[in-house]
Amino acid sequence: MGMFSRMSTIVKSKMNRMLDNAEDPRETLDYSYEKQLEMLQNVKRGVVEMVTAKRRIQQQATKVRDNITRLERQAKQALDADREDLARLALQRKQNAMIELQGLDEQIEGMEQEQQKLTVAEQRLQAKVDAFRNKKEIIKAQYTAAQAQVRIGSALGGISEEMSDISLAMQRAENKTDQMRAKAGAIDELVATGVLDDFSGPQDDIDRELSQLTISQGVEDELAALKGGSSAGSSQPRALEGGSQSSVDAELEALRNQGNSQN
């Protein structure tokens, strides 16, 4: 029993949630307003029927009054004709008619009271229906405005999420660009230091050897100039410088040979 009760509770809760999601308050309000209009129409119809029935009874009471007047006239005519028996019969019918008329008047009075009650109820119900209609329109307008706000908020939320994704993509693109720039700078630096060969230009092996020869020739010219300038000094210093120059030339030659062997 406990399991079935729990299952029933779960089913009811899910059904209520489904109904809440499917329910539109504006449609519910319109439906309630239509039902109230139907009730108001029924009350008005009841008032009309009450008035119609009262008028029928009033017409019947009028006929009874006319009959009473006719019976009184007949009783007088019978007495004038010295027919007391006929006069007594007419008066008996008159008494019966008066009793009937009294009952009709009581019914009319009661129906008038009921008519007044129904009229007051109709007026009150009419006021309630009018107030409900005004309140209904206000609530519908508020609901529509709130629904529009929710839609705008959802749209803004979606835009915010999309902009967040775009911002992340832009950040990733900037990071990749920075990495590529750093990598390009490192390659340029390696090419400039000679660690990597620069294949961007038209220079080939012959051009590189010619460049090395040009550099070596420039070094030799500078050394010769230095040697020529050093001859203006004393003999002992010249001898010392000559010895030093020879060792320098030997070291430079060894460096050139090492560079040529690497190339």
Outline the structure in words.
The chain has about 260 residues and is mainly alpha-helical. The chain has helices at about 1-20, 25-80, 85-195, 205-230, 235-260. It starts with a helix and ends with a helix. Mean pLDDT is about 75; it is low at about 235-245.
N-to-C order of helices and strands: HHHHH
The Rg value, from CA coordinates, equals: 62 Å
- Low-pLDDT stretches are 233-244
Structural class: mainly alpha
Mean pLDDT: 77
Gross geometry: rod-shaped
The share of residues in helices is over 70%
Q: Proportion of β residues?
A: under 5%
- Give the tally of β-strands: 0
Annotation field: number of helices: 5
Distance between the termini: 95 Å
Largest sheet: none
Secondary structure elements and pairings:
Elements: H1 2-22, H2 25-80, H3 84-193, H4 205-230, H5 235-262
Helix pairs in contact: 2-3
Jot down its keywords.
mainly alpha; 92% helix; 263 residues
In short:
The chain has 263 residues and is mostly helical. The chain has helices spanning 2-22, 25-80, 84-193, 205-230, 235-262.
